[in-house]
Amino acid sequence: MPPLPPLKDLIARHGLNTKKSLGQHFLLDENICARIAHCAGDVAGCTVIEIGPGPGGLTRALLQAGAKQLIAIEKDQRCVAALSELKESFPQLAVIEADALEADLPTLSPAPRKVVANLPYNVGTALLIKWLDDIHVDPQAYQSLTLMFQREVAGRIMAEPGSKDYGRLSVISQWLCETAHHFDLPPGAFSPPPKIHSSVITLVPRPKPLYPADKTALERVVAAAFGQRRKMLRQSLKTLNVDTEALLKAAGIDGTRRGETLSVEEFCRLARKY
Q: Is the pTM of this model over 0.90?
C-alpha cells in the first residue's frame, strides 16, 4: 500500500471522537483488521461493500487484500471526510454518505458482491434482517456476508435447537444461509472499549432455502412459537388463529413440545401446513 498516515493521527486531525448515538467503537488494530479481511476470502474478483468504516482501519485491510472495488457506506460526515484521504491513493474506493438501513446494496454494483463490516451494535440485527430479505429475493444478491456483531447476537444467529439462544433469528438465518464462526474479540480491542465481547461470523447464501416454505408463513409460525417460548406449541401457536391441534397433527409434530426444540426443517413443515 502507499504510505498512509497512522489511524490515530487521522482521528486526531479530523476530530473523530466516537459518537454513542451512532454505536461507534473504532477498530484500529491493523492485525485484527487484516484477520477480518482474510475471513472474507478472495476479494480480488468482486465488489466489497463495507458498512460503517469509521476512520478506515478495516477499509485499509480490504484494499490491501486486493478488493477489486470497495464501496464504503458511512453515515458520519466526519468519517467521510477522513476516508477521502484513502480515495486519493485508491481509485477503486467509493465512499457513500448514507444510512445503511436505507441503502439498497444490490443496486450499488454488479454481482458478485461481498459485505464485510464491523457493524454498529445498535443496528446490526436490523441490517442483517434487511440483507436476509435481499437473499430471499435473489440468492446471488451477496456472495457472502462477513460481519462483526456483539457476541450475544452472533450466538443467536448460529444457535442450535434446544439452546437458550435459539430463536427467530437462528431459524431464518440458517434457512437462507450457511453460517461459520471465525473468532471473538474482547472489549479492549476497540476504542472506546464497549461493555461486551464481539464475534466475527460469515453467512454464505444457499442457492435455495434449506427446505421449501413460504417466507411470510415461516416468519409467522416462528414468531408465534417463540413469542411465548416457555409454553407448549399447542398453546403458543394459538396466536396464528387456526386450529392448532389440526395444524400440529398435519405437520406430524407433538403439541407438547416447545418451539425452541424444533429444527429448521420442522418449522418449514409447519409453515407449509399453515
A: yes
Query: For the chain, how many residues are written?
Result: 274
- Taking the CB of residue 122, how many other CB atoms lie within 10 A of it? 13
Cα radius of gyration rounded to whole Å, the chain? 21
115 by DSSP, 3-state: which? strand
| Element of type H or E holding 93 | strand 93-97
**Cis peptide leading into 209, omega within 30 of 0?**
no
Pairing relation of β-strands 144-150 and 177-185? unpaired
Question: Pick from 174, 180, 147: which is nearest to 48 by CA?
Answer: 147
Q: What is the DSSP string of 188-221?
A: GGEES--SS-EEEEEEEE-SS-SS---HHHHHHH
Q: 108-142 pLDDT, tens per residue?
A: 999 999 999 999 888 999 999 999 999 999 999 99
